[in-house]
Specification:
heterodimer, A: 371 residues, alpha/beta, disordered C terminus, B: 139 residues, five-stranded parallel β-sheet, globular
Chain lengths: 371, 139
């Protein structure tokens, strides 16, 4: 059974209330009416309308105030203004207060029916959008849990047993066998890291991160990141030259996430750099910001790819066959940096290398001493 | 004397992988596959160290077990090596706490999967720390 749409009319002129009721009679509607704002607002609570018609000019509280209060109570209720003093400016004002449409008096029954139908359509759309958003949120959470349980856990168990096997066979394996196990370990490790990045994107609400912000040291976050990428730089024999200002200002942020952003960017530079090359990590104060730059002499990014590299799931169309990647790390990094009120950018030339810049705003309390 | 360790983890394949590394290093290792059995096994009082998974069953049930251990006067000083696949998420599950949350008096945290060398280092360091603490109390 289809439920009837609930319509509330707020107007001090009884004749308007009556004629509106008459026009809508017989339709799939349930009507309620009030002759002033106060009574109308009470009915909004009791009657829970889908659509409210509000007269702008009434004794007692004004139509504008009624609009504002209804919006404060439930922003999904569609509001339409009816008024005798239809001017452009009052229409604009009503729209600003959240009205969906505007009906000047006098109006024909057909006009009233039309605006009613359109407004109820709008209400349906609003509710559907909310339901969809909720569903999307739910899916996201479920996907995160599937990724975590169904992909990450088994793969981790595989790796753990491989570790055990290698450990037990340490004295038995020959070089070529060790090499094979080494290759398997690296590939599984790459997969685990990829899954972790996915999880990070899917399950963590970056904006929630801000609730836990504290004064943190940028230098410390960079140091942590450098420790994390060390195995890769050793494997590729890449020297990481660092120049980190001794007295960098603190940043209001989340140390773990910020480290993750640095790990992604520095790791990315290492990945696309030739063996035996150099990556330069610099951090310095620049005006109101701390600028961290990561410069490599790797394969670079082509002009056509440049605008897209901070988008999720993008991994260059051209020139990047040299290394496998998953493109999500940069998108995550951007989200993290932006959650810190900062920005991220890149300068690059294909074949010559790239420089990534992360700029973070100085926190307002500069005199905080980090321990 | 051989040290006795208990692993509490609901994934038998993980348990097998970790157990064999520890046994190869001459530890005696038992396993429990849920927090309830784990807590019961601990009651026997014969373990020197607990290896504890965080995400078990319907959520962070490992944390609940750690809290129970902390409240138990007999188990309070039991060293615990937390083995978790959720290093990153821990910060979000327990906001405001450091990545290494110190659920009990003596704990250390390693990430799953854990390399044998790191696992053995952490286990022996925790055992040593707990020994020292014990002898301090006696002295």
């Amino acid at each position: 059974m289809e439920t009837k749409s609930r319509i509330l009319l707020i107007d001090d002129e009884e004749v308007v209330l009556d004629s509106c009721a008459q026009i809508l009679a017989g339709g799939p509607y349930e009507l309620a009416s009030a002759s002033d704002g106060t009574a109308g607002l009470r009915l909004v609570e009791e009657f829970q309308p889908d659509l409210v018609f509000v007269d702008l000019k009434m004794p007692g509280i004004s139509g504008f105030e009624v609009l504002e209060k209804i919006r404060g109570k439930d922003a999904t209720i569609v509001m339409v203004v009816i008024t005798g003093f239809a001017t452009v400016s009052s229409a604009v004002d009503a729209m600003k207060k959240g009205a969906y449409d505007f009906l000047p008096k006098p109006f024909t029954p057909e006009e009233f029916r039309l605006i009613t139908r359109r407004s109820l359509e709008k209400r349906k759309l609003v509710l559907e959008t909310i339901a969809l958003r909720r569903e999307k949120e739910l899916l996201r959470e479920q996907f995160a849990s599937i990724v975590s349980h169904e992909l990450k856990a088994p793969l981790g168990a595989v790796q753990q047993n491989l570790f055990a096997l290698e450990f037990e066979l340490t004295n038995t394996l020959n070089e070529s066998q060790k090499e094979k196990i080494g290759r398997i370990k690296v590939r599984i490790d790459d997969l685990l890291k990829l899954i972790n990045s996915w999880l990070r994107v899917i399950s963590v609400d970056i904006h929630k991160l801000k609730e836990g912000f504290t004064q943190i040291s940028v230098a410390e976050s960079i140091t942590k990141a450098l420790e994390n990428v060390e195995p890769l730089s050793v494997r590729k024999n890449i020297e990481i030259e660092t120049s980190i200002g001794a007295q960098l200002p603190t940043v209001n942020g989340d140390s773990l996430s910020l480290s993750e952003a640095f790990i992604n960017i520095i790791g990315n530079s290492l990945k696309y750099s030739p063996d035996g090359s150099k990556v330069i990590v610099k951090a310095e104060e620049q005006g109101n910001e701390t600028q961290i730059s990561i410069k490599d002499s790797g394969i670079g990014i082509s002009q056509e790819d440049l605008p897209h590299i901070f988008e999720g799931f993008y991994r260059g169309k051209s020139g990047q066959e040299a290394a496998s990647g998953h493109g999500i790390g940069l998108a995550v990094s951007r989200q993290i940096v932006e959650a810190h009120g900062g920005s991220i950018s890149v300068e690059s030339e294909a074949g010559k290398g790239s420089t990534f810049y992360i700029r973070l705003p100085k926190s307002r309390t500069t005199e905080v001493v980090t321990t | 004397m051989t040290k006795r360790l208990l692993i509490v983890d609901d994934d038998p394949d993980y348990v097998a992988g970790i157990k064999s590394i520890l046994e190869a290093a001459d530890y005696s290792v038992d396993a429990a596959y849920n927090p309830k059995d784990g807590f019961q096994a601990l009651q026997s009082g014969s373990y020197d160290l607990l290896l504890l998974d965080i995400m078990m069953g319907r959520g962070a049930e490992g944390v609940a077990l750690a809290r129970k251990i902390r409240k138990d006067p007999k188990l309070r000083w039991m060293p615990v090596l937390i083995i978790t696949g959720i290093r990153e998420q821990i910060a979000f599950l327990f906001p405001g706490q450091p990545v290494h949350p110190h659920f009990v008096e003596f704990d250390e945290l390693v990430e799953k999967p854990v390399e044998p060398k790191l696992l053995l280092e952490k286990v022996s360091a925790l055992l040593k720390m707990s020994e020292e603490k014990k002898s301090q109390k006696k002295g």
